[in-house]
Design a protein that fits this description.
- This protein is α/β, with parallel strands linked by helices and 209 residues long.
- It has two domains: 1-109, 3-Layer(aba) Sandwich (Rossmann fold), CATH 3.40.50.170; 115-209, 3-Layer(aba) Sandwich (Rossmann fold), CATH 3.40.50.170.
- Helix content is 35%, strand content 25%.
- The strands form two sheets. It has a seven-stranded mixed beta sheet with strand order 3-2-1-4-5-6-7. Strands 8-9 form a two-stranded antiparallel sheet.
- β8 and β9 form a beta hairpin.
- α1 packs parallel to α7 (170-193).
């Protein structure tokens, strides 16, 4: 149980960053300490800087090219060291596309969550919405889960179901999913910061006090 949640938000373009920011502002024992993007350029990083939050881009491909004698595990170690140096103890992934290895995760036990645009365990990995459309499923959704060493395989915290209409295309489905992602992200962050989660094996129980 933590007294203060010092949050790092790891993003891509940052589409859900403002919603996370507004959520955290209402939680007395939580603060966003750092925002990091895995893209070379990110509108989310630009927005974070306007809010006076410490933020920067940390793209894997660029980092590897600048550190030719190092590998993905070293990248994970350096990212973890940066966050630990800032006293981060809770990590929220929202659009972050780089797989996090044990070398990162072991620094934040049960302290990393991710939002994924499908009903896990279905359609893990990249382009989940496209996968769902091409498979022809009638329902998809989004999942908030703890991050483990697999790809979108960690214990599930919250899920939302979305019906796929016959006229849905990738863009309309993504928009519907994004709205639900913001909802469960905020619910999950709030529940975690209020210490209302109990983990029993793979089962996550959220208590309502």
């Amino acid at each position: 149980m933590k007294n203060k949640f010092n949050i790092a938000v790891l993003i891509g373009k940052g589409g859900r960053l403002q919603s996370i920011y507004n959520c955290v502002k209402k939680i007395s024992n939580a603060e966003i300490i750092l925002v990091v993007s895995d893209k070379i350029n990110s509108s989310g990083i630009d927005w974070a800087k306007k809010q006076k939050m410490e933020s920067f881009c940390f793209p894997l491909k660029k980092w590897l090219s600048e550190n030719p004698n190092k590998n993905r595990k070293d990248y994970n170690k350096e990212l973890a060291a940066i966050l630990k140096n800032k006293k981060v103890n809770f990590v929220v992934l929202a659009g972050w596309d780089v797989i996090l290895y044990k070398e990162f995760l072991e620094n934040f036990p049960r302290g990393v969550i991710n939002i994924h645009p499908s009903l896990c365990p279905a359609f893990g990995g990249m382009e989940a919405e496209k996968q769902a459309l091409e498979y022809g499923v009638k329902y998809t959704g989004c999942t908030l889960h703890f991050v483990d060493e697999g790809v979108d395989t960690g214990p599930i915290i919250l899920q939302e179901i979305i019906k796929i209409e016959d006229n849905d295309i990738l863009e309309t489905l993504q928009e519907k999913i994004h709205q639900k992602e913001e909802k469960i992200l905020n619910e999950g962050i709030k529940a975690i910061c209020e210490n209302r989660l109990v983990l029993k094996g793979r089962k996550v129980i959220i208590n309502n006090f």
